[in-house]
Design a protein that fits this description.
This is 2-methylcitrate dehydratase. There is one protein chain. The strands form three sheets. This protein has a four-stranded mixed β-sheet. The protein has a two-stranded antiparallel sheet with strand order 1-2. The chain folds into two domains: 273 residues, 2-methylcitrate dehydratase PrpD, CATH 1.10.4100; 123 residues, 2-Layer Sandwich (60s Ribosomal Protein L30, Chain: A), CATH 3.30.1330. Helix 6 packs across helix 12. The chain has 493 residues and is an alpha+beta fold. The chain is globular, with a radius of gyration of 22 Å.
Length: 493
């Protein structure tokens, strides 16, 4: 029996590879395409915002990193390197600010493991925007099906799903893009199983975004190795010392959920996909929105408040319970800080996680009167996992509260408008690109499926004669960006 004993008598990885290789353009609905483009656009924007961050710049200064020859661009620079190094650096930048999209089923960030790796290899091999989008959709499908098979045990155990499951997503997406057959795709997935890593203990540090850069690089590496004949155990997922039993444990996963409803409908269409309106951990967003609702609807100010109680769903609080953040990164994982900031400023922006913003006297006072605890009415095993209630006690004795039971970022029935997408993108991109490149880049991303060669996109991500990033001289108004909305796509079966 050849072909690695017929892929170990049809292993889980081989069955998954069959799904991946069998995916076709005809399965992509208009809704799926639009959601994919929106997530892709948003990811490029937050990557540009993350290029100047310390975690990215330290990588660039590290001997041996980005020194390999190659044609793949480090965004916001004129530096080109290997696809592997570009995936590592751009991938780290994409999560540096924790401003990227996320998914409640995934328990993490579904786009960042994929976008940097796909753009790096697509630029090197001159793939089209349509091909990249199809591969992205395959990567998301793979990540989310794995998540359905291993959660919530995988998440609660302490693994960072963005990294552990994202490695498989990147391997699947790149394998599809470079047209590996089923046997080689199986090998790519099997190799990825030994490259998957990332623990939540490193949340709130530079290592969290490094998880993303590394998982994208590792998924890409797995596919490239498989392309060249590297082998691995095709039964690595179900083996008694394989991924599912080691990372989860016997009896804590359901492998058949890997295949149930594959692409029917596509995971990218789900209302569980959420874009971030605020540049901090997505688990804090329901509480931020409830405080903003109080501010807008009740007209309260920080001076009116005697005490604040934040009651998120328990799963949202475990990694965001940081009462007194000491660094900007810790502030991103402090539900107390972001709720206080929402009360003080009526919004939460990138500047709130820079310099000494978390030590402002007004913020420190609000942190002293803010308490957080798990919501007693939101069970860990509830169907809805993204709820929060915020209660404020005013100095005049009144108690006001707002509650939401499920708010997964901006998506589903509450999508970001084109204006909101542009405002976020411009704010992010201006940290790395000159103003004249931002609007053309946005418009190119809006019609990514029409790009014949991905270099038509990446040339708008290049800044001449700079290794790092630069600020734009002035913001670009949405009105000046375009006279009309981007043309409606016709890429529908």
């Amino acid at each position: 029996m050849s072909d690695v004993n017929q892929l170990a008598q049809v292993s889980l990885a081989a069955r998954l590879a069959e799904k991946i290789c069998g995916f076709s353009k005809q399965q992509v609905t208009k809704k799926a395409l639009q959601q994919a483009k929106t997530c892709f656009l948003d990811t490029v924007g937050v990557t540009l915002a993350g290029i100047p961050e310390d975690c990215t710049q330290i990588l660039l200064r590290t001997p041996g990193v980005a020194e390999a020859p190659g044609s793949s661009l480090i965004f916001g620079t004129d530096l080109r390197t290997s696809a592997l190094d570009a995936a590592l650096i751009n991938g780290t930048a994409s999560h540096a600010l924790d401003y990227d999209d996320f998914n409640s089923v995934f328990g993490g960030h579904h786009s960042v493991p994929l976008v940097a790796a796909l753009l790096a290899v697509a630029e090197e091999r001159k793939y089209s925007g349509e091909e990249v989008l199809l591969a992205y959709i395959v990567g998301v499908e793979t990540e989310l099906k794995l998540a359905r098979a291993v959660h919530f045990h995988h998440y609660d155990k302490g693994w960072h799903p963005t990294a552990t499951l994202g490695t498989f997503g990147a391997a699947a997406a790149v394998s599809y893009l470079i047209r590996l057959d089923q046997q080689k795709t199986t090998m790519a997935l099997a190799i990825a199983a030994s490259l998957a890593s990332g623990i939540k203990a490193n949340f709130g540090t530079m290592t969290k975004p490094l998880h993303v850069g590394q998982c994208g690089r590792n998924g890409l590496l797995a596919a490239l190795l498989a392309e060249n004949g590297f082998d691995a155990n095709p039964s690595v997922l179900e083996h008694h010392q394989g991924f599912l039993n080691v990372f989860n444990g016997p009896g804590t996963f359901d492998a058949e959920k890997l295949f149930a409803g594959w692409a029917e409908p596509l995971e990218i269409e789900s209302s569980d996909v959420g874009l971030k309106q605020f540049p901090c951990c997505g688990s804090t967003h329901p509480a931020i929105m409830m405080m903003l609702n109080l501010v807008r609807e009740e007209g309260i100010t920080a001076d009116d408040v005697a005490r604040i109680e934040v009651l998120p769903h328990g799963r949202r609080l475990r990694h965001t319970n940081t009462p007194h953040p000491k660094t900007p990164i810790e502030a991103k994982f402090s539900v107390q800080y972001v709720v206080a900031r929402a009360l003080l400023d009526g919004t939460v922006r990138l500047k709130d996680f820079e310099g000494d913003a978390h030590n402002e006297p007004a913020i420190r006072h609000l942190l002293q009167i803010t308490q957080a605890r798990p919501h007693p009415d939101m069970a860990d095993d509830a169907a809805e996992q993204w709820g929060a209630e915020v209660v404020v006690e005013l100095k005049d004795g009144r108690r006001l509260s707002r509650r939401v039971d499920n708010l997964v970022g901006r998506g589903g029935e509450n999508p970001m408008s084109s204006d909101e997408l542009w405002e976020k993108f411009e704010d992010c991109a201006s940290r790395s690109l000159p103003r004249e490149q931002i609007a053309p880049l946005f418009e190119r991303l809006e019609t990514l499926e029409a790009v014949a060669d991905i270099s038509q996109l990446t040339r708008l991500l290049q800044v001449s004669s700079l290794r790092g990033a630069r600020k734009a001289e002035a913001p670009v108004s949405f009105a000046s960006r375009t006279e009309q909305e981007a043309p409606e796509t016709t890429w529908v079966p």
